[in-house]
């Protein structure tokens, strides 16, 4: 065993890097082993690992259709969700009604 008290700061930092890398490798190896064991057991039982853990396929988020349009620049739109765009705020402050900006 190395006497840490007799090591220089540079040696200690190098040792720290080695230990960190060894820990990451160890954790990755153990995780892979656990994954292999669980996958094999699930296969033995005739189910997939996704079925065991109830993994759902991710939903594809579709963009929301625009609800409001800038009165002078039709390329500027807003769905009505989230933060109000500056052009929308400015139009409301200038006296426009929300219904005036509807598509």
Automatic annotation (TrEMBL):
<dbReference type="GO" id="GO:0000976">
    <property type="term" value="F:transcription cis-regulatory region binding"/>
</dbReference>
<protein>
    <submittedName>
        <fullName>Transcriptional regulator</fullName>
    </submittedName>
</protein>
<feature type="domain" description="DNA-binding protein H-NS-like C-terminal">
    <location>
        <begin position="58"/>
        <end position="103"/>
    </location>
</feature>
<dbReference type="GO" id="GO:0009295">
    <property type="term" value="C:nucleoid"/>
</dbReference>
<keyword id="KW-0963">Cytoplasm</keyword>
<dbReference type="Pfam" id="PF00816">
    <property type="entry name" value="Histone_HNS"/>
</dbReference>
<dbReference type="GO" id="GO:0003681">
    <property type="term" value="F:bent DNA binding"/>
</dbReference>
<dbReference type="GO" id="GO:0001217">
    <property type="term" value="F:DNA-binding transcription repressor activity"/>
</dbReference>
<dbReference type="GO" id="GO:0032993">
    <property type="term" value="C:protein-DNA complex"/>
</dbReference>
<comment type="similarity">
    <text>Belongs to the histone-like protein H-NS family.</text>
</comment>
<dbReference type="GO" id="GO:0003680">
    <property type="term" value="F:minor groove of adenine-thymine-rich DNA binding"/>
</dbReference>
<dbReference type="InterPro" id="IPR027444">
    <property type="entry name" value="H-NS_C_dom"/>
</dbReference>
<dbReference type="InterPro" id="IPR037150">
    <property type="entry name" value="H-NS_C_dom_sf"/>
</dbReference>
<dbReference type="GO" id="GO:0005829">
    <property type="term" value="C:cytosol"/>
</dbReference>
<keyword id="KW-0238">DNA-binding</keyword>
């Amino acid at each position: 065993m190395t006497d840490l008290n007799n090591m220089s700061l540079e040696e200690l930092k190098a040792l720290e890097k080695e230990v960190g890398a060894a820990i990451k490798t160890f954790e990755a190896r153990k995780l892979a082993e656990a994954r292999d064991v669980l996958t094999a057991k699930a296969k033995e039982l005739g189910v997939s690992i996704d079925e065991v853990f109830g993994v759902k396929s991710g939903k594809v988020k579709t963009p929301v259709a625009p609800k409001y349009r800038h009165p002078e620049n039709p390329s500027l739109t807003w769905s009505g969700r989230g933060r109000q765009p500056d052009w929308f705020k400015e139009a409301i402050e200038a006296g426009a009604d929300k219904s005036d900006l509807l598509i």
